[in-house]
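Problem: given the chain below (266 residues), write out its structure.
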Amino acid sequence: MSQPISLRRRLAIFAAAASASTLLVACSDATTSSSGGASSTLASSPSAAAPSMTTAPSTATGSATAADPQLIVVDGRTIAVPPGISFPENTKIEMSSMNQLVLKAPLPSELLEFFRTSLPAAGYLIVDDLGEILSFSGKGWTGTVSSTGTDTYISYKQSSSSTSAAPATGSDIAADPELIDVDGRSIVLPPGISFPENTKIKASSDGYVTLSAPAPAALLDYFRTSLPGAGYLIVDDLGEVLNFSGKGWFGTVATTTDETTISFNL
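Solution.
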């Protein structure tokens, strides 16, 4: 039986067919493992200089099994991130959800420079650097770091080749994504997901869409109804965060005071 097409390859196929904006496609997973422990706290000077990193480099191995995530404390929150990933000492988190963070400090340009250095030092390969978007892979994980000008989005997931040793069969094979037009943009989403007519998109990239309208409360109510109607199960409703799964996909709808982010993965 043929193996299912990866999410990134599917996104590339659909985006090319519609002549949409170029989507990040990771060519291959860099499989490495870390010989060190949890991320250390980073020291930074009181000045506004770009932060430095202290994470030790890792040595690549041939393992295709994803390394376990690590729990670290950032800005007073305990978050689970791919092993070895670290953050500047003055990091401020605006929103955190399953497999995604939105950072409001340091500045996006400083965070991009930080991750250009710290990700390779932690054993990850930067497979694309498009200026305001970095795509990385390693240790059985893939992810992106992207800037909207005021915020920095970090999304990550265990790569599909390392989440299970068994061949995918039956319901393990995710339904193909679909391309839809929202707010004048062509975006690729899990099949059947829809948006209100007055939706305004603030940012979109591989695996997530951030909306500035309608209001977060209205969007949460909308997705509480539309997701089950499209064949998805809401597995957690935490008030300001919904976790959903179905059709071989899983995702999160998470809100801040004025924005809503929908993230999704195979």
